[in-house]
Amino acid sequence: MQESAPLDLTALAEEHLAKARAAAHGRSAHLVMHDGVLRQSVIALIAGAALDEHNAPPAASLQVLRGRVRLTAAGRAQELAAGGLQMIPKERHGLTALDDSVVLLTAVND
Q: What is the pLDDT of residue 94?
């Protein structure tokens, strides 16, 4: 087993939130782990920025590291705040930042 230094999610969240604030589209994302079918990404969104509706991977979860977001799917909406963890519905869904926010997306792809 190859060992690597632990990832500092707090520092990474701050870095990408700064990049999102400077970006015209108000977001920044970075793939932090990729192991076979497992992918984890940090996604930063400034308040009001969104990820438009898109298809879901076979399995995924969303953990809010900072801020508040709204996860929408099939006409339903759920708000999540820092510390919240939610399975992502296995259907088309979208994400909107209610505050400047950073999330950790964990996805398993085929």
A: 93
